[in-house]
Design a protein that fits this description.
Elements lengths: L2 H31 L5 H37 L2
Helix pairs in contact: 1-2
Length: about 80
């Protein structure tokens, strides 16, 4: 296996891992939306939203890195 393919494999794994973390964060946020209607629960739900946004940003960064590497391999830029 070439070094180029190893790098692509690592970027792909990082992307998939980031997406799985994002999915987990979404599910955690969703679970909190189903709780009781107390102020404390609403605060937890809002905090979970920020965690979800952070996970989303990481997934988008990993996707971009993977896409850039694929673009470089197939198109040379």
């Amino acid at each position: 296996m070439s070094d180029e393919n190893q790098e692509l494999d690592q970027l792909q794994v990082a992307y998939k891992s980031a997406v799985e973390a994002w999915i987990t964060a979404i599910r955690e946020e969703e679970a909190l939306a189903s709780g009781d209607h107390s102020v404390a629960e609403v605060d937890k739900w809002e905090a979970a939203h920020f965690s979800e946004e952070d996970a989303r940003d990481k997934a988008k960064e990993a996707k971009s890195a993977y896409e850039d590497a694929l673009r470089e391999k197939f198109f040379g830029f």
